[in-house]
């Protein structure tokens, strides 16, 4: 994982509908390796749906999502889970943390799919990421964390295995401006050639992205490439 340049992520003719209503209609989308893409647009415009299609969580009614040799949209469930485990870090809009576990155990959770016990180096990396994000690593059950701390725990978990693709759904939505800036800087500093697609309304995140794609009513209405802003503070390498 994390070795060499990842391939282009290419979506073609993607359509998703629920109850006969089309909520996503994307004829073509190519995300270049290592690119930093913000996906924005009004509530209900299909951002989460598109992110889940790119992650292989949601199979579109039509179309393909190709990553290297793999059409993610056509994988069986177990192959899709395996592909995701090996290649994708995901930050869900609702975090999907387990409240009864400590933050560090939530962060090491992905490692338990491949290892009977979590290797010590991954445990240390999890603790390091939580330190970088200012989350108390062992002291509390995740249930006791603030919403912002939960969000940062979810981001740390997505970064644990140094995925080739990071897909994040509103990763700064619960954070104040300083925390949003710090999390964005750490997230982007951790990229190291990874492809990132971040659903966001946050100008702090958007100004750091190279490409801004805007969805409305399930369609791409603008797609702009620009020079991203530099980090405002020294970047902490996780
Ligand atoms: N499982 C589902 N069943 C029916 N409708 C759905 C389902 N999932 C999403 N939708 C609908 O599809 C549309 C797009 O939803 P989506 O969650 O992708 O929007 P979004 O842009 O992420 O919005 P937000 O900014 O509020 O998170 C919405 O109208 C939503 O109600
Ligand atoms: Mg959403």
TrEMBL record:
A Pfam family that the UniProt record links to this protein: ABC_tran
Keyword presence, ATP-binding: yes
InterPro entries, per the entry: AAA+_ATPase, ABC_transporter-like_ATP-bd, ABC_transpr_LolD-like, P-loop_NTPase
SMART domains: AAA
GO cellular component, one term: plasma membrane
Domain of life: Bacteria
Domain ABC transporter as annotated: residue spans: 9-236
Protein biosynthesis among keywords: no
Keywords from the named record: ATP-binding, Nucleotide-binding, Translocase
Gene3D superfamilies in UniProt: P-loop containing nucleotide triphosphate hydrolases
SUPFAM superfamilies referenced in this protein's UniProt entry, alphabetically: P-loop containing nucleoside triphosphate hydrolases
Any one GO molecular-function label of the UniProt entry: ATP hydrolysis activity
Family under the similarity heading: Belongs to the ABC transporter superfamily.
Official protein name in the record: ABC transporter ATP-binding protein
